[in-house]
Amino acid sequence: MDILFIQQILIAALKTGTPLLLIALGELVCEKSGVLNLGQEGMMLMGAMAGFAGTYFSGSLALGLLIAMFAGTMMALLFAILTQTLNTNQVATGLALTIFGTGLSAFLGSQLVGNTIEGFQEIAIPGLSQIPFIGPILFQHDLLVYLSFMIVGLTWWVMHRTRLGLTIRAVGENPHAANALGIHVIRLRYGVIAFGGAMAGLAGAYMSLAYTPMWMENMTAGRGWIALALVVFASWRIGYLMLGAYLFGCSSIMHLVMQGLGIDISPNLLAMIPYLATVIVMVLISSDALRQKLATPMSLGKPFDPKLHS
Known about the structure:
The protein is mainly α.
């Protein structure tokens, strides 16, 4: 295995990990505020379908990107209305949202299956992309990969260096105390849920506008569920989340790598690697219950009614 081959694996891992990073980042911020949204897969599929449809009919990638984020946000706000205003169960509502998004995206996108577009192209950053080995890995990607780097940095800064980030974390730990201090808990949670939906839509747009510029039913292939496991794997830390996304991305392409190396294993078994890795990670995480309990936001998944705590 030469250096060039390793380089190509790392480039592919980064590209494959990008949609996981985007959707998991939105879920991490949601969970930091105490909201557990299991509808990531449905929101991501709606973003993928809407982004492709917007670009296909308008010819504009930028418009398709905005439409994808809008679709994800609208799906997320539906979840917010049900869980934050009507106080429905977050787990059941999230599962229903995934089923709804999966079916609706298939229905609305049925006439688009098989069509293709010219998606986002690679942009080599002058100078930086010429750095030996590292240059092509980090500085020769499409616009959405670069955008993911910026979003991660900005989100980390907001969560750890601003009052808004402190407020989000405070609400996630003790919404009753936050409410007593004058923080509008429900309004804040609406905002972070919308952010999570926008990130899910952006992740879906990456799938249909950059990774494979086409639309087909269920093209996210369970990435929304992997993203949920990834947040737990990262212990709700953005740095670990970024590393984990690329590790999961690497596991997703290992079946292609193994086939390229001539390993005589069924392709169907090799394609199971990322999902097997998810199960193994969750088992390892659950083995350290104390560490997991300390890292988990205290109010995660718990309903909050300001009328009962005013």
